[in-house]
Amino acid sequence: MKKEEKKEFVKLPDSELYIMQTIWNTATPVGTGKIVELITKSKDWSRSTIQVLLTRLEERGFIKMEKKGRLKYYSPIIKEEDYLSGETKSFLKHFYNNSYKKLIASLVQDTRLTDEDYEELLTIIQNAKESE
Fold first, then answer.
1. pTM of the prediction?
2. Which residues cross the membrane (predicted)?
3. Is the model's pLDDT at 121 over the cut of 70?
């Protein structure tokens, strides 16, 4: 029996991540026209640029495309929570050498944290410990 291969995390470029966030934040499947409409509200991207990015995301296995007549509709394959978890692990490895203690120390030493922020962090940690 083969040992299950662990899929390597694929970090998206900012432009593709922006497209993914748009898809995650809409009811899916979502048409190309709606994606273009939503993105061009805040980005000066052409329709063809957005279509290229959609194609890349499809090729990478992040979204699936379904044709209905002449129209294309997109749905996420990768859940937002799964992607964010991978980003967090990558960040932790890259910047904190996989040390949660160093990450948390960095957070709590930030002078901009309020008493409420500290309490919330403590609650998160305590809840995580209790759920083990």
1. 0.80
2. none
3. yes
